[in-house]
Amino acid sequence: MDIHMNHREQNISHTNSQNDFALHRRLRQCSPGLHRNYLEASAGACMMLDRYKTVFPQYTDHSSLHCLNIMNLAGQLVGNCLQQMNGSELYVLLTGILFHDLGMGISKADFEKLAPALCGERYPAKGSEGELIREYHQELGALLVEKYSGIFEIRKEYVFPVMQAVRGHRKTDLWDENAFPAVFQTGAESICLPYIAGIIRLADEMDLCRDRNSTLGGEEQLISDAYSQLVWRTHDTVKEMELTEKECILYAEGGSRETWEELEKWARKLQKTMDEVELVIASRTPFYLPGRMVRIVGIMP
Q1: CA triplet 160, 162, 166: central angle to 5 degrees?
Q2: pLDDT at site 12
Q3: What are all long-range contacts of 25-29, with beta carbons under 8 Å and residues at least 24 apart?
């Protein structure tokens, strides 16, 4: 990780416009039927995702806007490998992105049904339900996908790969062949789960490091603990992200010494995730992800 200070350039790359909605366009081209299934799932997922705000007002963004950001980042990460991906892989990737944080918006009724078996002795945890949801949200999300697969128009043969794409974005072992097989057969097509889960994991980690639109509402008034306040301030410091063939650059402006130290921690964590995902993809899949260095560039007025 490298930190530089420079003057603001007039045009800082945000997202590569040629990658905007590239995954959608390619899925529609490869498999119109699966593309329709994905669109059917979107409306219900957005409503469930936005429920997270009632449980986690201190979080900057785990909503549908976060999913759109990840979709754009995933398109950039996939890059030239897009033509290698078949319709099933594109469908699972897009649906996994859509549902990856579904567990954060879990209803009280679903939490009470699913948490006992999942959390073991840690449930019931009166007053700390939010902590359990946060810790197990990737597992809760996968179980919600399974439970509501009919409502979400997820065909039976795609339930497992979509569940694993959701699970794979956090706290799971992408080297596990049973959990993330490199070849999961669905009819005439196979799905490379370590690649799909790796792309979602990395795109998610990248979006956690940049501006998360934390100034759009009045949520700041709901934050009471000091660390959550620091997280919001740090997000406001990151103005842009640029992804090149060799680097992931975070452009930051303003902020205090404390926010810069926090941003450096985020950058180190992002670098670790980037290295791990790149190694998994190189070792377990036929796809390619270039190795990149994370760099923070300070913008001076």
Answers
A1: 115
A2: 31
A3: 26/82, 26/85, 26/90, 27/87, 27/90, 27/91, 27/94
- Token look-up 């490298």 returns 2
Q: What is the pLDDT of residues 64-106, one digit of tens each?
A: 677 788 899 999 999 999 999 999 999 999 999 999 988 887 8
State the Cα–Cα distance between residues 39 and 21, nearest whole angstrom.
13
Domain residue limits, the chain: 2-300
Specify the length of the chain in residues.
301
Mapping DSSP onto H, E and C, the string for 164-192 reads HHHHCCCCCCCCCCCCCCCCEEECCEEEC
| Block residue for tokens 């859509």 | 98
- Report the amino acid identity of residue 253: E
d(C-alpha 113, C-alpha 109), whole Å: 6
Burial of 188 (0-12, 13-18, 19+ CB in 10 A): exposed
Q: Are 140 and 106 in contact (CB under 8 A)?
A: yes
Cα separation of the two ends of the chain: 23
For tokens 């926090």, what's the residue?
A: 262
- The yes-or-no verdict on residue 171 having pLDDT over 80 is yes
